[in-house]
Design a protein that fits this description.
The chain is mainly α. It is built from 5 helices and no strands. 28% of the residues are buried. Keywords: Nucleus.
Length: 90
């Protein structure tokens, strides 16, 4: 866990619970607004989409970029965060 950002470490430190989507590493305030506007207000809803895409990081990243205006960096960080969470908790 030494190479992880503090935000990623915090996200992975406990179950997802009722965390808002902005808790997901890589989700900026602006991206969170776009996600919330389309119904992705909780981290677990974003995780659900990641799981529906069979944890395919490339597909999830493309979806974030195309549908919500995420940058490549945001998309990569958030997919990595959800992948790491799945490794820890699923």
């Amino acid at each position: 866990m030494d190479h992880m950002s503090p935000r990623l470490r915090a996200f992975l430190s406990e179950p997802i619970g009722e965390k808002d989507v902005v808790w997901v590493d890589g989700i900026s305030h602006e991206l969170a607004i776009n996600l919330v506007t389309k119904g992705f207000n909780k981290a677990y809803t974003l995780l659900g989409q990641f799981l529906l895409m069979h944890k395919n990081e490339a597909e999830f990243q493309k979806w974030l970029i195309c549908c919500f205006g995420a940058t490549e960096c945001e998309a990569q960080e958030s997919s990595n965060c959800l992948k790491e969470w799945c490794t820890c908790f699923l």
